[in-house]
Structures are given as C-alpha cells and as structure tokens.
Amino acid sequence: MAYTFASPSFSPLYSCGVTDIRATLSLSGSPYHPQSPFKRYLFSYLLSIMVSWGPNRLDAFIIGTDGTLHQRWWDGSQWNGFFNLGGSWLFEPVTISRKPNTLDVFLVGMNHSVYVKSWDGSTGNWSDFKNLGGVVVVPPAVTSRQSEYVDVFVIGLDHAM
C-alpha cells in the first residue's frame, strides 16, 4: 500500500442519503452520551464517516466518549453493535474503501500524527494502527485514484498543506 501526499482532491459521495440514514440508523448502544453536544450534528457527521465496501454493506465509524475508535455496520438487514477498535484520537475518523472488501480508516493521534488502520475482507482482519507521521492540526482528507494507492492531504502546524 502506498500513501502519497499531493495536491487537493475530493472523494465522491457514497450513494446513501440523509433520509436513509435517519430511517435506518439506530444509535442504541452507542458509545456517545445522550447529552453529547455533538448530538445535533450527528447525522451530518455520520455522512462523513460512513463507507461502503460492497453491496448492502455500510460501515460507520465514530470516536466514543472514551476517545477510542468504534465501528458499527449494516449487513443488508440490520445494524450490528458497536465494536471498539481502540486507540486514543483527537479528531473524527476519515474512511475510504479503495476497492471491494477493503477499508482504510485514517485518524489523528494524541501526538498529532496521522495513523491508518486497514481492514482486509479476504481475511476478515484489521491491521494494527500504522503511524504515517506528520504533525497535523485537522483531520486528513483522503482519496484513492487506484486500488493500491491512497492520497492523504493534511494541514500542518504552519497551516500549509
């Protein structure tokens, strides 16, 4: 897997709308506290952290009140419970599926470095968190132009990309 830093680019939106998410997403069992100040932004927030790697599959990623990464997934008939993927993160995750049966989740650690955790559907396993380095002040933006390449865009301490 190659990670490159390049000029700005934007990923296409996935084909699930706010109406679908509001109708189907149940947050019971969510690590979010019901009185969270983020509750009013939850649906727009979820749109940015949901990804699909195949038909009838949606994966949602959030940072829980404990600061760890959590995953919840739709399997075509129901939402499955939150699964704690660990870590300790400053910002919301950024997710991408560069080809069927793959997920890459990018996060900013407490040291302001960018990390990635990948899922391989052929094995059903998650990788360990890999530190990509850098010192960033906002979550990265990611896009994939080819199945084995991901472009990662960051803003550093000097506020330059």
Can you tell me about this structure?
The strands form 3 sheets. Strands 6, 7, 8, 9 and 10 form a 5-stranded antiparallel sheet that branches. Strands 2-3-4-5 form a 4-stranded antiparallel sheet. Strands 1-12-11 form a 3-stranded mixed sheet, with no helix packed on it. The radius of gyration is 15 Å and the shape is globular. A hairpin with a 5-residue loop joins strand 7 and strand 8. The chain starts with a strand and ends in an 8-residue tail after the last strand. It contains 2 helices and 12 strands; from the N terminus they run βααβββββββββββ. The N terminus is likely disordered. It has one domain. Helices cover 9% and strands 37% of the residues. The protein has 161 residues and is mainly beta.
Count of DSSP strands: 12
Q: Classify the beta-strand content into a percent band.
A: 35-45%
- Secondary structure tally, helices: 2
Mean pLDDT: 74
Secondary-structure map with pairings?
Elements: E1 2-4, H1 18-24, H2 42-48, E2 50-51, E3 58-63, E4 69-74, E5 79-86, E6 94-96, E7 102-108, E8 114-120, E9 125-126, E10 130-133, E11 141-146, E12 149-153
Parallel strand pairs: 1-12
Antiparallel strand pairs: 2-3, 3-4, 4-5, 6-7, 7-8, 8-9, 8-10, 11-12
